[in-house]
Write a structure and sequence with these properties.
252 residues, alpha+beta, five-stranded mixed β-sheet, two-stranded antiparallel sheet, 7 strands, globular
């Protein structure tokens, strides 16, 4: 598997891991932590319908230093959101990006590691990507799995009232017990990594030769890769148009 910027790394398709018992617990449990957790409210694999052993085994596969799993989420216009487990020894992390075969470099959304950057997606973008798979492309097609794979990149202060219910249904669909799905959903929507941010259309002039296209949202989060810059840099206006349509943010 080849992704621009990772040509020397051991990338492998990771989609088969989604069927591994304990996968969702391993992938999302850290995002359920809260500083105010009491002992009886600390997240555990059981919340996700998994055992400790299953979650540990899934974590070993996700963090394999010799095989870096990449999860592909293809959507409109040939775009693909990718979740890449960057398994450097003692310096692991997870990258969230959007790639396209015509682009010279990925459009970065978020990085989760010791020097995290995010958020990278608004709620509107997250749901639109999740619900509009490209059936002809390789990768994750199930809308519920797509939403859960990308939710760590979410940070949006303007969540709709139904957001927790949407995430809760997705969790139940991947095997979480109904009695814990609502609790997990609320934790996932209140990320410990970054504060919820506002997403707006840019109103600044172009700079350094980069087009500024009001159809692609920008973020005001202090740590966001999308703060004051276009999501995909170095692309043409036509490519911006296509990306904005694929993200569901243009035309209004």
């Amino acid at each position: 598997m080849l992704i621009v910027g990772y040509e020397e790394d051991q990338l492998v398709a990771g989609e088969a891991l989604l069927d591994t018992p304990g996968f969702w617990a391993s992938y999302l449990i850290w995002l359920c932590d809260s500083d105010g957790d009491e002992d009886d409210d600390h997240p555990s694999p059981e919340w996700f319908g998994a055992t400790d052993e299953e979650a540990d085994a899934a974590y070993e596969a996700l963090s394999d230093e010799s095989r870096w799993p990449v999860f592909r989420i293809p959507f409109h216009g040939g775009h693909t959101a990718v979740v890449l487990e960057r398994n450097f020894p003692e310096d692991g992390g997870t990258e969230y990006a959007i790639v396209h075969p015509e682009w010279g470099r990925p459009g970065f959304l978020a990085t989760i590691d010791g020097h995290q950057a995010g958020p990278g997606l608004s709620w509107r973008e997250l749901v639109y990507i999740a619900e509009n798979p490209d059936a002809a492309a390789a990768g994750i097609q199930d809308p519920q799995q797509r939403l859960l794979m990308l939710i760590p990149a979410l940070g949006d202060v303007e969540l709709p009232d139904e957001a927790a219910a949407v995430v809760g249904r997705a969790l139940v669909s991947v095997g979480c017990p109904a009695e814990s799905a609502s609790r997990i959903a609320l934790r996932l929507l209140d990320s410990p990594m970054w504060k919820p941010a506002r997403w707006t259309r840019p109103d600044r002039p172009a700079a350094d030769g980069e087009p500024v296209f009001a159809g692609i949202l920008e973020c005001d989060g202090q740590l966001s890769p999308r703060r004051g810059v276009q999501l995909a840099q170095g692309i043409t206006r036509e490519q911006c148009d296509r990306l904005a349509r694929a993200l569901g943010t243009w035309p209004v």
